[in-house]
Write a structure and sequence with these properties.
Blueprint (H helix, E strand, L loop, with lengths): L4 H23 L10 H12 L11 H21 L8 H29 L13 H8 L1 H15 L4 H30 L31 H28 L3 H10 L3 H22 L10 H21 L3 H4 L3 H26 L4 H11 L4 H8 L10 H15 L1 H6 L1 H9 L3 H30 L2
Helix pairs in contact: 1-2, 2-11, 3-6, 3-8, 3-10, 3-11, 4-5, 4-13, 4-16, 4-19, 5-6, 5-7, 6-7, 6-9, 7-14, 8-9, 8-10, 13-14, 14-15, 15-16, 18-19
Length: 457
């Protein structure tokens, strides 16, 4: 048999387990009552069948780590290139501030947990692992893997990537299982009408119009979208390469920051994609070119969804059971406290941030801020089956608003690693103080906006 079948089989495993997961969710009723994405269930099946559990199939864990990293970037590029005609509302801005404040809260909570554990039972832990809580719970396995791998390159601890992958998987389970418990609690405690998740089936029909320039066949539009995404990712590689080389020439601190740059392929991909969209708009407006017709929002969204599903499945398959022994105490503590802390934070402040549909916002936000947006939307359907309220749209718009406001958090990720390498704990203190101050500022703005909105009613 040809040697190149090995890589092909690794890719095929992802899709085979997705098919099996789909059949299990449709045929076994218990899986209709909890919110577990098909991709997550597929990853769990792959992990169980993999070399470190049952050994039914054999694969290289590093391969799937790479899949997670690159499909994160590809997915975000596709989302950026998609056409978005959305209008921000009052609650969409509040949603963005709410999402960002929760990220900051998770970061502060994670750093407190690390500080206590370092000074009690595990003095050799890396303080920056506390920042992995918002990356894994709030952002998902792609971000956790990207940052964990960049940390690993500098620290050589042997488990930072695996820690991020495992914590992200725990976050999915927390959002799906604990989220359903929250849904049922709202139904009983407050008399909120709920809908059985098992019965929210059926078939959705939507009509889409896809347009293209006449030289491109209708059926070739998918190829066009893939080529555009690939071109953006190709340019992203060279941007990151030159930036990393430039930082490496600045000494040890520069090389440390340069190693972190390698973990932000999604951010650089977004920037390049935005520039491409601006170029297309310029050519359309001033050169009368048909460039805007080259991108199709529907197809780009499907490419993004495809990429994120592969990323989720691969992220669970990339978990090393053997490596978990290095951090199992921290994983248990931070998972339990992180889940309970996020639940209390979200449910408490949702009541004070949003002027209506507070229970819907808190349920959807909890699902999204422990799992993904799809987890939040799935839980939301338990109270709003047809997504008739503005909550679903505010969830999406809020994420877009929170993204640029979260840049200071990305900058803060470099400080603990510098402190660890230099042996200077002042960098840990700077990180904690900066994020704590940021969350106070964001929450103050958020609550003042909510108060002003209530007074104006």
């Amino acid at each position: 048999m040809r040697d190149d079948w090995t890589v092909v089989l690794y890719v095929l495993y992802v899709f085979i387990f997705m098919i099996i997961a789909k059949l299990i969710k449709e045929k076994l009723g218990i899986f209709k009552s909890i919110i577990i994405p098909n991709a997550l269930l597929a990853g769990i099946l792959g992990l169980i069948a993999g070399p470190e559990v049952l050994g039914i199939i054999d694969f290289e864990i590093k391969f799937y780590e790479s899949i997670v990293f690159h499909f994160l970037g590809i997915g975000f590029i596709a989302l950026t290139l998609s056409e978005k005609n959305t209008k921000q509302r009052e609650n969409s801005v509040n949603s963005g501030l709410f999402i960002l404040s929760t990220y900051c809260f998770q970061a502060v909570l994670g750093m407190i947990i690390l500080f206590i554990m370092i000074n009690t039972v595990k003095p050799d832990l890396f303080f920056g692992l506390g920042l992995m809580l918002p990356l894994a719970f709030g952002q998902g396995p792609g971000f956790a893997t990207a940052i964990g791998s960049s940390w690993e390159e500098v620290l050589n601890l042997g488990y930072t990537t695996q820690y991020g992958l495992t914590l992200a998987t725990v976050g999915f389970l927390v959002g799906g299982i604990l989220g359903v418990g929250l849904l049922n609690y709202y139904s009983r405690k407050y008399g909120v009408k709920s809908h059985n998740l098992r019965n929210l089936g059926g078939v959705n029909k939507k009509n889409y119009e896809i347009k293209s320039v006449s030289e491109i066949n209708f059926y070739d539009m998918l190829t066009t979208q893939i080529v555009l995404v690939a071109g953006v990712y190709f340019i992203t590689y060279f941007v990151m390469l030159n930036l990393t080389n430039g930082l490496n020439s600045l000494g040890e601190i520069g090389s440390t920051i340069g190693s972190l740059v390698k973990g932000f392929n999604h951010l650089f991909g977004i920037v390049v994609a935005i520039l491409l969209k601006k170029l297309f708009e310029y050519l359309k407006k001033y050169k009368n070119a048909r460039t805007l017709e080259l991108t199709d929002g529907y197809l780009m969204h499907n490419i993004a969804s495809f990429s994120f599903n592969i990323m989720i499945t691969a992220s669970v398959m990339a978990i090393s059971i053997v490596t978990i022994k290095e951090y199992w105490e921290l994983l248990i503590v931070i998972s339990v406290i992180g889940a309970v802390g996020t639940l209390l934070f979200v449910t408490f402040f949702a009541e004070r941030t949003f002027s209506n549909n507070q229970k819907l916002y808190s349920l959807a936000m909890f699902g999204m801020l422990t799992g993904t947006a799809s987890t939040g939307l799935a839980l939301l359907r338990g109270l709003d089956p047809n997504l008739e309220t503005d909550v679903a749209e505010d969830l999406v718009l809020g994420s877009a608003i929170a993204a640029p406001l979260g840049i200071p958090l990305m900058v803060a990720l470099s400080q603990p690693i510098i402190g660890y390498k230099t042996g200077n704990p002042i960098y840990f203190l700077i990180t904690f103080a900066a994020i704590f101050a940021y969350v106070v500022i964001i929450m103050t703005i958020m609550l003042l906006r909510a108060r002003k909105a209530r007074l104006n009613k």
